Amino acid sequence: MTTLAGNPAPRPGTERLREIGVFLVVGGAASLVHLAIAVLLVEIAALRPWQANIGAFLCALPVSYLGHSYLTFTARRNGRASAVSRATLSRFTLLALVGFSLNQASVVVFAEILGLPFRAVMLATIVAIAALQFVLGKLWAFNGARSATSPNGDAAALRPDAP
Where in the cell is it found (predicted)? Predict the structure, then answer.
């Protein structure tokens, strides 16, 4: 089987593996930014872990959004008109805030209350939440293939990339 351009069509599952691989690279880059900033803010700026986690999250957020918009969940592969839009930014931000809330709760409970090592807590938490972020990012935040219509029958009004 070949594509219209005459290139061999990707084998089933190959695209998903590529997407997961790119997600891991982009997420890894954002996670390294998050971890590095958090550790610096705790160990050098003497902030409490929950405070450092907020600053680190805000630094990692644009790395994650732009990387996933342009590289992981590309517009072409996910039915969107453009890589970056208000709709994807809104959904991604909401998803990121949910992930951050889970992350923050984990830091407070495991590092602050239970006294477990901060670095280990941060690392384990970031990895655990990444799986949730992948699934919800793929199925919701960056998914442009919607077939619903608005009450007046205007399908474009509910398009994720509509202005």
Answer: Membrane
| Token representation of residue 162 | 């509509």
| Residues 72-84: tens digit of each pLDDT | 888 888 787 888 8
Q: How many other CB atoms are found less than 10 A from the CB of residue 147?
A: 6
Q: Cβ–Cβ contacts within 10 Å for residue 61, how many?
A: 18
Q: Which two tokens stand for residue 36?
A: 């590095």
Q: Residue length, the chain?
A: 163
Q: What's the count of helices (H) and strands (E) in the chain, helices before strands?
A: 5, 0
Residue 81 CB neighbours (<10 A):
12
What pTM was estimated for this model as a whole?
0.70
Delimit the domains of the chain by residue range. 17-143
